[in-house]
Amino acid sequence: SMKASLESVVLPQELDKFLAKHSPILSCVGYSFGPHYGFELAMKAVNELKEEEYPRIGLVIMGADKKEMDFQKLLEKFNDEGLSCVLFTGDIDHKSVLSVIKTSDLFLRPTYHDGDSISVREAIAMNVLVVASDTEIRPKETILFSKGDREDLKIKIRQCLMKNRRETTGGQV
Predict the structure, then answer these.
(1) I want to staple 123 with a disulfide (CB 3.0 to 4.6 A). Which of 26, 28, 58, 128 is the partner?
(2) Alpha helix stretches (DSSP H) within the chain
């Protein structure tokens, strides 16, 4: 089974440490650091949530080549503190990506335009809550936010984290 095969995955040490140190964990995947993936939006939202009520929140951004110019441009928009709750894994193997998604509290797909995202379907298949921008094609289980809208993104993330907390504490928040 996929679940069994994921339990044997050994993650890179830096990633393992990050997952242990941060909670809740949000993850997302992209094939480049181009603006249309919405990573900047996600990072800003996560930093605001860190200030407001989730001091240990962490965002794992997987895939994409850190040698890209777009990566440097993205980093320049944040100070060290703003980057402390984000880990960029670079390109890691698919089983590791799935393993991270599976351990996440939430999977994010903050794209500005999108096709039928495979990573969204993979997250849903593993019963991970998905918050995604309201582009054309999204499975019905997806929790949608208004694309590009940071406040709406934060509202939807909060709703999901509350839902997770209720489920793991048997309804007692």
Answers:
(1) 128
(2) 2-7, 13-21, 39-52, 69-76, 80-83, 94-103, 118-125, 150-168
